[in-house]
Write the structure tokens for this entry.
Amino acid sequence: PGKSWVINKQTPNRQIWWSSPLSGPRRYEFEGLVSQMDTTLPASTYWRCTKDRKEDLWNKMKEEISSITGVAM
């Protein structure tokens, strides 16, 4: 209760802006299509955090949802 996540699409910049009460603000940049050999990501696109270029949006979402619900994703 009282916690909000904000996700904002920045189409011209090919970015997604994420604000979380758990991890704070982040920007993710589109890095292209995921290889068909990579089965760790369910979507066909790949979004990488601009802060360190290591963090992936999908994995961050799973981590935080699991954290607040107690359900592994």
Remarks:
- The longest strand covers residues 24-33.
- Helices lie at 57-69.
- The CA atoms of residues 48 and 56 lie 5 Å apart.
- The chain has a mean pLDDT of 83.
